[in-house]
Design a protein that fits this description.
The chain is mostly helical. The chain has eight helices and two strands, in the order H-H-H-H-H-H-E-E-H-H. Strand 1 and strand 2 form a beta hairpin.
Length: 185
Amino acid sequence: MGRRSIKSEVTNQKIKRGTFTRLDEAKTPTEIAHKQQMAVILKIATFTPTQIAEALGERKSTIRAWFKEPKVQKQYENGIKAISTAAKQLLETLTIEAVKELGSSLTSADPRHRQWAVEQILDRGGIPKSRREESTGDSKKVVEHRVTDKEGNDLRDKLIGASPEVYDEASKGIQKIEDMLRGNA
Protein backbone atom coordinates (compact mmCIF):
# COMPACT_ATOMS: atom_id res chain seq x y z
CA MET A 1 0.00 0.00 0.00
CA GLY A 2 2.89 2.36 0.66
CA ARG A 3 4.15 1.82 -2.85
CA ARG A 4 0.78 2.71 -4.41
CA SER A 5 0.48 5.98 -2.51
CA ILE A 6 3.97 7.08 -3.61
CA LYS A 7 3.03 6.39 -7.24
CA SER A 8 -0.20 8.38 -6.82
CA GLU A 9 1.74 11.26 -5.31
CA VAL A 10 4.20 11.31 -8.26
CA THR A 11 1.29 11.21 -10.72
CA ASN A 12 -0.46 14.08 -8.91
CA GLN A 13 2.75 16.16 -9.03
CA LYS A 14 3.07 15.53 -12.78
CA ILE A 15 -0.52 16.60 -13.29
CA LYS A 16 0.10 19.82 -11.35
CA ARG A 17 3.23 20.61 -13.41
CA GLY A 18 1.41 19.91 -16.67
CA THR A 19 3.72 17.07 -17.72
CA PHE A 20 1.04 14.40 -17.55
CA THR A 21 -2.48 14.48 -18.93
CA ARG A 22 -5.29 12.40 -17.55
CA LEU A 23 -7.82 10.94 -19.92
CA ASP A 24 -10.55 13.11 -18.39
CA GLU A 25 -8.37 16.18 -19.25
CA ALA A 26 -7.99 15.20 -22.91
CA LYS A 27 -7.83 18.13 -25.31
CA THR A 28 -10.56 18.87 -27.82
CA PRO A 29 -9.68 19.13 -31.52
CA THR A 30 -10.12 22.91 -31.24
CA GLU A 31 -7.65 23.10 -28.37
CA ILE A 32 -5.15 20.95 -30.27
CA ALA A 33 -5.53 23.09 -33.41
CA HIS A 34 -4.98 26.24 -31.32
CA LYS A 35 -1.83 24.78 -29.75
CA GLN A 36 -0.59 23.71 -33.19
CA GLN A 37 -1.06 27.27 -34.46
CA MET A 38 0.83 28.58 -31.45
CA ALA A 39 3.59 26.03 -32.12
CA VAL A 40 3.85 27.25 -35.72
CA ILE A 41 4.12 30.86 -34.56
CA LEU A 42 6.80 29.96 -32.04
CA LYS A 43 8.75 27.96 -34.64
CA ILE A 44 8.63 30.90 -37.04
CA ALA A 45 10.00 32.98 -34.16
CA THR A 46 12.92 30.47 -34.08
CA PHE A 47 11.92 28.67 -30.88
CA THR A 48 13.34 25.15 -30.59
CA PRO A 49 11.02 22.13 -30.18
CA THR A 50 12.04 21.99 -26.50
CA GLN A 51 11.15 25.66 -25.98
CA ILE A 52 7.85 25.23 -27.84
CA ALA A 53 7.00 22.18 -25.72
CA GLU A 54 7.73 24.08 -22.52
CA ALA A 55 5.73 27.12 -23.62
CA LEU A 56 2.69 25.05 -24.58
CA GLY A 57 2.88 22.49 -21.79
CA GLU A 58 3.38 19.63 -24.24
CA ARG A 59 6.00 16.95 -24.74
CA LYS A 60 8.79 17.53 -27.23
CA SER A 61 7.76 14.35 -29.04
CA THR A 62 4.25 15.81 -29.46
CA ILE A 63 5.66 18.98 -30.98
CA ARG A 64 7.82 16.98 -33.40
CA ALA A 65 4.82 14.83 -34.36
CA TRP A 66 2.73 17.94 -35.05
CA PHE A 67 5.35 19.32 -37.43
CA LYS A 68 5.28 16.08 -39.40
CA GLU A 69 1.56 16.56 -40.10
CA PRO A 70 0.93 18.04 -43.58
CA LYS A 71 -1.58 20.55 -42.21
CA VAL A 72 0.91 21.97 -39.70
CA GLN A 73 3.72 21.95 -42.28
CA LYS A 74 1.50 23.94 -44.64
CA GLN A 75 0.68 26.46 -41.86
CA TYR A 76 4.41 26.89 -41.22
CA GLU A 77 5.19 27.37 -44.93
CA ASN A 78 2.35 29.89 -45.28
CA GLY A 79 3.59 31.76 -42.22
CA ILE A 80 7.11 32.01 -43.62
CA LYS A 81 5.75 33.21 -46.99
CA ALA A 82 3.55 35.81 -45.28
CA ILE A 83 6.50 37.19 -43.32
CA SER A 84 8.64 37.28 -46.46
CA THR A 85 5.91 39.12 -48.38
CA ALA A 86 5.40 41.59 -45.54
CA ALA A 87 9.15 42.25 -45.36
CA LYS A 88 9.30 42.92 -49.10
CA GLN A 89 6.33 45.31 -48.88
CA LEU A 90 7.96 47.13 -45.98
CA LEU A 91 11.22 47.48 -47.94
CA GLU A 92 9.32 48.85 -50.95
CA THR A 93 7.56 51.38 -48.73
CA LEU A 94 10.81 52.40 -47.06
CA THR A 95 12.50 52.72 -50.46
CA ILE A 96 9.80 55.12 -51.60
CA GLU A 97 10.19 57.11 -48.38
CA ALA A 98 13.99 57.18 -48.84
CA VAL A 99 13.61 58.49 -52.38
CA LYS A 100 11.21 61.20 -51.16
CA GLU A 101 13.67 62.18 -48.45
CA LEU A 102 16.54 62.27 -50.95
CA GLY A 103 14.41 64.42 -53.26
CA SER A 104 13.60 66.82 -50.44
CA SER A 105 17.34 67.25 -49.91
CA LEU A 106 17.42 69.12 -53.22
CA THR A 107 15.79 72.11 -51.51
CA SER A 108 18.23 72.22 -48.59
CA ALA A 109 19.64 75.61 -47.64
CA ASP A 110 23.14 74.13 -47.59
CA PRO A 111 24.58 74.00 -51.14
CA ARG A 112 26.87 71.08 -50.18
CA HIS A 113 23.84 69.09 -49.07
CA ARG A 114 22.05 69.89 -52.33
CA GLN A 115 25.15 68.86 -54.31
CA TRP A 116 25.34 65.58 -52.40
CA ALA A 117 21.64 64.93 -53.13
CA VAL A 118 22.08 65.68 -56.83
CA GLU A 119 25.09 63.37 -57.05
CA GLN A 120 23.20 60.60 -55.29
CA ILE A 121 20.18 60.96 -57.53
CA LEU A 122 22.23 61.14 -60.72
CA ASP A 123 24.31 58.16 -59.63
CA ARG A 124 21.18 56.09 -59.00
CA GLY A 125 19.75 57.31 -62.28
CA GLY A 126 22.71 55.87 -64.18
CA ILE A 127 24.57 59.09 -64.94
CA PRO A 128 28.29 58.76 -64.17
CA LYS A 129 29.88 60.88 -61.49
CA SER A 130 31.60 63.99 -62.72
CA ARG A 131 34.94 62.80 -61.38
CA ARG A 132 36.47 59.44 -60.66
CA GLU A 133 39.93 58.06 -60.14
CA GLU A 134 41.30 55.30 -62.32
CA SER A 135 44.26 53.27 -61.23
CA THR A 136 46.79 52.29 -63.90
CA GLY A 137 49.73 50.45 -62.45
CA ASP A 138 51.54 52.54 -59.87
CA SER A 139 49.90 55.84 -60.74
CA LYS A 140 46.40 57.21 -60.48
CA LYS A 141 44.88 59.58 -62.94
CA VAL A 142 41.75 61.64 -62.55
CA VAL A 143 39.24 61.25 -65.32
CA GLU A 144 36.77 64.08 -65.66
CA HIS A 145 33.25 63.42 -66.92
CA ARG A 146 31.15 66.48 -67.43
CA VAL A 147 27.58 66.67 -68.57
CA THR A 148 27.18 70.13 -70.08
CA ASP A 149 24.61 72.17 -71.94
CA LYS A 150 25.25 73.81 -75.33
CA GLU A 151 27.04 76.75 -73.69
CA GLY A 152 29.38 74.42 -71.79
CA ASN A 153 27.78 74.95 -68.39
CA ASP A 154 27.90 71.95 -66.03
CA LEU A 155 24.37 70.56 -65.80
CA ARG A 156 25.05 69.13 -62.36
CA ASP A 157 25.67 72.63 -61.01
CA LYS A 158 22.46 73.84 -62.61
CA LEU A 159 20.47 70.99 -61.06
CA ILE A 160 21.80 71.82 -57.60
CA GLY A 161 19.99 75.15 -57.67
CA ALA A 162 16.95 73.95 -59.61
CA SER A 163 13.45 73.65 -58.20
CA PRO A 164 11.97 70.19 -57.56
CA GLU A 165 9.72 70.63 -60.60
CA VAL A 166 12.69 71.28 -62.86
CA TYR A 167 14.50 68.32 -61.35
CA ASP A 168 11.47 66.05 -61.99
CA GLU A 169 11.34 67.13 -65.62
CA ALA A 170 15.09 66.54 -65.98
CA SER A 171 14.68 63.07 -64.49
CA LYS A 172 11.95 62.26 -67.01
CA GLY A 173 14.18 63.47 -69.83
CA ILE A 174 17.08 61.35 -68.62
CA GLN A 175 14.81 58.32 -68.41
CA LYS A 176 13.58 58.96 -71.97
CA ILE A 177 17.16 59.17 -73.24
CA GLU A 178 18.11 55.96 -71.45
CA ASP A 179 15.06 54.21 -72.94
CA MET A 180 15.97 55.43 -76.42
CA LEU A 181 19.54 54.20 -76.04
CA ARG A 182 18.29 50.80 -74.91
CA GLY A 183 15.91 50.67 -77.87
CA ASN A 184 12.78 50.80 -75.68
CA ALA A 185 11.42 54.05 -77.05
